[in-house]
Specification:
9 helices, BirA Bifunctional Protein, domain 2, 220 residues, alpha+beta, 4-stranded antiparallel sheet
């Protein structure tokens, strides 16, 4: 579970996002990060039993993303993120691709999964899988329980034009035009600090597991 002190640190970081404050509170950051690493380790152990492609040997330290922002090409010059991100890959230890993703942020925590902005080769393969086996995907994303947890799968970024190789009147054009194939579910602060936070997170992951299987099969 996440300690309330971890959320407190992130809340204060929002109003004090500068190197001087961060260095003065480095010990608090280190404790918060260790707390997040502990949660990641617990989630990995439980999630492996649901989805064996999430390796039980994943290093939780490497799954917790850097809090330092890359500001080289950003108008926002604040040096630190105001959240902790946890990437849980399903393809060995390489982050990205088809994965589960957990973000810890006061009032804005969430669990997500799927494939965000696939590389060109994978995007082509996923579209081909949708074209061939759309009913399999639609059974997953149209399921009432799935929609209740994650909302409308089709309501994410789409191409403004028809993807190359497909007709505009294709019955599944709304799925073929998607740029990403992700879902997310918000987590309340009281949920992430609860004793069974890892269990709750993994339970939600189990509901999006079929989507990840569909996507993994597409790019296999």
């Amino acid at each position: 579970m996440i300690q309330s002190q971890t959320l407190d640190f992130l809340k204060e970081l929002v109003d004090n996002n500068k190197r001087e404050w961060f260095q003065a509170n480095k010990e608090r950051y280190d404790k918060a990060r260790e707390n997040v690493i502990d949660l990641a380790a617990n989630v990995i152990t439980k999630l492996h039993k649901v989805d064996p492609s999430v390796s039980a040997d994943l290093d939780p330290k490497k799954c917790v993303m850097r809090i330092y922002r890359d500001i080289r090409f950003s108008k926002n010059k604040t040096p630190y993120k105001n959240n902790f991100g946890i990437s849980l890959p399903t393809q060995g230890s390489k982050l990205g691709g088809v994965e589960y993703y957990l973000q810890i942020q006061p009032g804005k925590s969430f669990i997500a999964g799927g494939y965000w902005m696939p590389e060109a080769e994978h995007l082509k393969a996923i579209r081909q899988e949708i074209d061939y086996n759309a009913n399999d995907l639609k059974r997953i994303i149209n399921d009432k329980g799935f929609v209740k947890l994650f909302g409308d799968f089709r309501a994410q970024d789409q191409l403004k034009t028809t993807p190359k190789g497909y007709d505009a009147d294709n019955e599944n054009i709304d799925l073929l035009k998607l740029k990403s194939f992700i879902v997310s579910h918000p987590l309340k602060d009281k949920e992430v600090i609860s004793k069974d936070a890892a269990g709750l997170i993994v339970d939600i992951c189990s509901k999006l597991y079929p989507l990840n299987i569909f996507l993994k099969n597409a790019i296999a």
